[in-house]
């Protein structure tokens, strides 16, 4: 699937370059107002840009070294849901600071007893005059401690069937009665939190869509989550790819044995297949289609692929892999200096040593390995993705609901 981009002198490129000349160090707000943060969104937040224009904008921003604001849950998930069902007032109030990165968002969906079976959630929202009073607990809430707002699912009608009694709110994270406790993961970092709600008052105009529409809106959010989580890098679109691993090994003198060579080849081939699936998904979204169940096909493959890349990188590091901050080159370089890996001349050996030094001070691989078990859990577990594929893509009978 070739995407031909307009040439260097094209009008499309010229317009972006001219803007960048006038804004050499643009703020998030300037980028947002120019429509360059989410060019595919409708105006005024985006430019309703078609596929080629979007790729040109990406290309020109990258060349100029300009980075877009980082607000993944806001821009990737909450924003599309507000565009889908938010009132004009809600869009005007929340989308500008969201896409300019001024207000960070989190996602308050999962609960201790409601992860895969999200519709079993027990957090309640009870109407109190114009407001809603929320009680309950959420868990695994990424960046809740940094967020200004959260998208919140709460049960507003305990008597309705479980998917029907849920509503979707915008929750101010500094409201009275909210407690955010850190959950430190095995990389030693604090990204997750548990969030407690004790009689938290949420204004009535923070309800998105209508009462009871929460499950429909959750599906909009989670559909976009699967697309957002499906980038090129091994760790949900971030981090190194299979090609990076192959490249490192080649530059370090080649795979140490046949089994490793086969594993590398397999991962490289999978990486190619995933790239094509990704391009397919992108072109569908760019053509205005909503992310369908096919996004689950890519996620199911990409998550396992990511784990296998990190496993192989760890295996390549051998005993050095038990140390933090080591990567796949650490042992290869050791082996090459001892002559057990074919290194053709001294200059390659020198490059290898140099890269290994960089490799051993870079925690990308070791952190990636520790994070990789999360790949097949977050954004819908591997088993849940397979259920979606079975039912929605293959047309197999629905799973029995035993709850
Ligand atoms: C990195 C990361 C970030 C996250 N960030 C957020 C966040 O910001 N906000 C948020 O709300 N949540 C977040 N989560 C939580 C995530 O959505 C849940 O972990 C996920 O939905 C799974 O739920 P659970 O952990 O309760 O596992 P469970 O649902 O309890 O599943 C346990 C096991 O049972 C299997 N299983 C469950 N149901 C079925 C079934 N029907 N068929 C077959 N097997 C099944 C699962 O596949 C899994 O192996 C995050 C998770 C991760 C890993």
Give structural notes.
The chain is of the alpha+beta class and 403 residues long. Helix 1 (11-22) packs across helix 3 and helix 8 packs antiparallel against helix 9 (294-317). It is built from 13 helices and eight strands. Helix content is 45%, strand content 13%. The protein has helices at 11-22, 28-33, 51-63, 72-85, 88-99, 214-228, 242-251, 258-286, 294-317, 329-337, 346-361, 364-371, 382-393, and strands spanning 105-108, 124-128, 131-138, 149-155, 166-172, 178-184, 190-203, 207-208. The model is unreliable at 339-349 (pLDDT under 50). It is globular, with a radius of gyration of 23 Å. The protein has a four-stranded mixed sheet with strand order 1-4-5-8. A four-stranded antiparallel sheet has the order 2-3-7-6, with no helix packed on it. The protein has three domains: 11-63, no CATH class; 105-212, Butyryl-CoA Dehydrogenase, subunit A, domain 2 (Beta Barrel), CATH 2.40.110.10; 229-393, Butyryl-CoA Dehydrogenase, subunit A, domain 3 (Up-down Bundle), CATH 1.20.140. Flavin-adenine dinucleotide (FAD) binds next to strand 1 and helix 13.
């Amino acid at each position: 699937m070739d995407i031909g981009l307009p040439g260097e002198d094209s009008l499309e490129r010229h317009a972006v370059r001219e803007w960048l000349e006038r804004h050499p160090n643009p703020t998030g707000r300037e980028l947002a107002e120019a429509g360059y943060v989410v060019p595919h969104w409708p105006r005024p937040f985006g430019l309703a840009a078609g596929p080629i224009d979007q790729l040109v904008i990406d290309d020109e921003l990258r060349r100029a070294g300009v980075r877009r604001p980082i607000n993944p849950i806001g821009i990737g998930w909450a924003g599309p849901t507000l565009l889908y069902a938010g009132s004009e007032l809600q869009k005007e109030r929340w989308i500008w600071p969201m896409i300019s990165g001024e207000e960070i968002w989190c996602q308050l969906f999962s609960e201790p007893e409601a992860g895969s079976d999200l519709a079993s959630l027990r957090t309640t929202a009870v109407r109190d005059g114009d407001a809603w009073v929320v009680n309950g607990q959420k868990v695994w809430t990424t960046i809740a401690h940094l967020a200004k707002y959260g998208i919140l699912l709460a049960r507003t009608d305990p008597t309705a069937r479980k998917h029907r009694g849920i509503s979707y709110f915008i929750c101010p994270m500094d409201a009275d009665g909210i407690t955010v406790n850190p959950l430190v993961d095995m990389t030693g970092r604090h990204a997750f939190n548990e969030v407690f709600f004790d009689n938290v008052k949420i204004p009535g105009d923070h309800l998105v869509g209508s009462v009871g529409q929460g499950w429909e809106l959750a599906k909009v959010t989670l559909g976009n989550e699967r697309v957002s989580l499906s980038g090129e890098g091994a760790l949900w679109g971030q981090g190194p790819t299979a090609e990076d691993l192959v490249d490192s090994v080649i530059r370090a003198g080649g795979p140490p044995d046949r089994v490793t060579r086969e594993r590398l080849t397999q991962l490289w081939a999978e990486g190619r297949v995933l790239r094509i699936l990704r391009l397919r998904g992108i072109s569908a979204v760019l053509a205005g289609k909503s992310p369908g169940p096919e996004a689950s096909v890519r996620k199911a493959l990409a998550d396992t692929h990511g784990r296998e890349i990190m496993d192989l990188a760890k295996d390549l590091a051998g005993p050095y892999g038990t140390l933090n901050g080591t990567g796949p080159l650490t042992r290869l370089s050791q082996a090459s200096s001892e002559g057990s890996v074919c290194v053709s001349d001294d200059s390659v050996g020198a490059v290898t040593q140099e890269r290994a030094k960089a490799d051993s001070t870079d925690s990308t691989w070791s952190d990636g390995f520790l994070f990789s078990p999360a790949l097949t859990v977050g954004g819908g577990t591997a088993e849940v993705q397979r259920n979606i594929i079975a039912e929605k893509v293959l047309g197999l009978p629905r799973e029995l609901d035993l709850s």
